[in-house]
Amino acid sequence: MTVADLNPKYTWAEGDDAPLGTNPPEIQAKVPHPMRDSRFVPKERYYSREVFELEKKHLWPHTWLMAAREEELPNPGDYVEYEIAGTSVLLVRQRDHSIKALHNACRHRATELVKGQGRLPGGQLVCPFHGWRWNLDGSSSFVFGEKAFEPACLNKDDLALRECLVETWAGMVWINMDLGARPLAEHLSPVQQLLDPLGIGNMRVKWWKQVVLNANWKMAQEAFFEGYHVTQTHPQLLMGNDEEYGEKKAEQVAYTTFKNGHARFQSASKGEKEYEPVFDSEEFIEAGRLLATGQDAMTLEQDVRIFEGLRNKIPQDDPKFTQHAIAALYDYAQGAGIPMAPMGPAMQLWGGDIYMFPNYLMLPMYGNCLAYRSRPYKDDPEWCIFDVWSLTTYPVGQEPERAELKGIFDKDDTENWGLIPRQDFSNIERQQRGLHSPGFTESRLSSAYELSISNMHEELDRVIASRVE
């Protein structure tokens, strides 16, 4: 029996984009608590120190990571620190506006050079311990008390800060610590091609926040791999309707898993037609308002005002109200100089999700996007730091100059998190606690909604096994 037999709305990509599925015994033998069946995930994968150490050694240093937004370092001399699993990397904007990624460790005695985000005075990285200095490109520019060192300690090439691979795509800076890694485009295939038609390269940061969660980094991001949880977790999004309504909504979502561990969910296909969602006018407006007030992302207050402006222009029972609303949004954008992506089949991803292995997700909607990134926190497999971005498309020439982290906020902070993320955060920590119950041994996954989770775990096993002796 195939996945398609179980649920025609869940598909595995075909041809070169097809996922590899369950791993053979020789791969399973190389990893602890391996994935042996795509329907079940051993609970130890979320808290085992052995698994966590293998991820530190064989995953994070050898995969492409979304390290920063380009607008975090807009000018030459700007830097931002990216930290993951105890490794600190500095992204530095060069004088030619390219970006270099440098390991954040003095070549003298390992002191971290800078922290956080800022601008390098005089275009120099300066060690706060003994004053050794480096140029923006990581080349050595000054050694204090040079005469006190033997020549073998002062080889210019050896004094240069160690580099990572860097590539940029759609306003994002990606790094790979493995200098022999394949190109970013190969790693992101095919999801990069799915996102490009949505204009995400035109989007900029509206706000950026972080939360620390008592949960494994995988547990935190898996909550967003499916829309199956909406009925129970976000009942307000049902707008007063019952579970039967919620189940019908869930059935309108199509899921696809890809090679490289990536995945997608989106509105179910309607053949070759363009994206044509059908909503009652009030349902459509109210759904937009719930998103705008509940998370200030994907659908924004400005979008809702445009939709509300149609109330007295388009009959409420017009079956094409949604199409009129989207057309009004595009008309507004054209007048305001906002570069929206062309209308087309890619709009099926609006309200959906693209997951990019190992730890980054994008949820596009109109000219906006919600983005998530999950990373281990303080060398503990049961804690993670979770980044949340609200992205939007600004009028040309009116983009914010620099994106900065607004802060790290408690998961229950009602001033900084809307209702929707607070609901999600609560479930994530409850899941992590439940793993330790003697009455629980493994997650059991729906073949209709949740195989993106097993696809990620199977890819993780392949990555680790490929480097284990």
Average residue-wise pLDDT:
92
Stretches where pLDDT is under 50 for at least 5 consecutive residues are 1-9, 271-276
DSSP helical segment count: 14
**The number of domains:** 2
Helix-strand category:
alpha+beta
CATH superfamily of the largest domain: Naphthalene 1,2-dioxygenase Alpha Subunit, Chain A, domain 1
**Overall morphology:** globular
Largest sheet: 8 strands, mixed
Q: Oligomerization state of this entry?
A: single chain
Strand order of the largest sheet: 1-14-15-16-17-18-19-13
Radius of gyration: 24 Å
Number of DSSP-assigned strands: 20
**CATH fold-type name of the largest domain:** Naphthalene 1,2-dioxygenase Alpha Subunit, Chain A, domain 1
Helix content: 25-40%
What's the N-to-C terminus distance?
A: 35 Å
**Can you name the CATH architecture of the largest domain?**
Alpha-Beta Complex
Protein name: Rieske domain-containing protein
Keywords: 2Fe-2S, Iron, Iron-sulfur, Metal-binding, Oxidoreductase
Cofactor: Fe cation
Domain Rieske: 64-175
Q: Explain this structure to me?
A:
The model is unreliable at 1-9 and 271-276 (pLDDT under 50). With 469 residues, the chain is of the alpha+beta class. The chain contains 14 helices and 20 strands. The strands form four sheets. An eight-stranded mixed sheet has the order 1-14-15-16-17-18-19-13. It has a seven-stranded antiparallel sheet with strand order 3-12-11-6-5-4-7, with no helix packed on it. The radius of gyration is 24 Å and the shape is globular. Helix 10 packs antiparallel against helix 11. The longest helix is centred in the C-terminal third of the chain and has 16 residues, at 321-336. It folds into two domains: 3-45 and 188-270 and 339-465, Naphthalene 1,2-dioxygenase Alpha Subunit, Chain A, domain 1 (Alpha-Beta Complex); 65-180, 3-layer Sandwich (Rieske Iron-sulfur Protein), CATH 2.102.10.10. Strand 9 and strand 10 (140-142) form a beta hairpin. 26% of the residues lie in helices and 24% in strands. It has helices at residues 3-6, 25-28, 49-59, 156-159, 184-188, 191-195, 217-222, 230-233, 243-251, 281-295, 301-308, 321-336, 419-434, 451-465; strands at 10-12, 40-42, 65-69, 78-84, 87-93, 99-103, 117-119, 124-126, 133-135, 140-142, 163-169, 172-176, 203-213, 253-257, 263-267, 353-356, 360-365, 368-377, 380-393, 442-444. Residues 64-175 form the Rieske domain. This is Rieske domain-containing protein. Pfam families: Rieske, Ring_hydroxyl_A. Keywords: 2Fe-2S, Iron, Iron-sulfur, Metal-binding, Oxidoreductase. InterPro entries: Rieske_2Fe-2S (IPR017941), Rieske_2Fe-2S_sf (IPR036922), Ring_hydroxy_dOase_asu_C_dom (IPR015879), Rng_hydr_dOase-A (IPR001663).
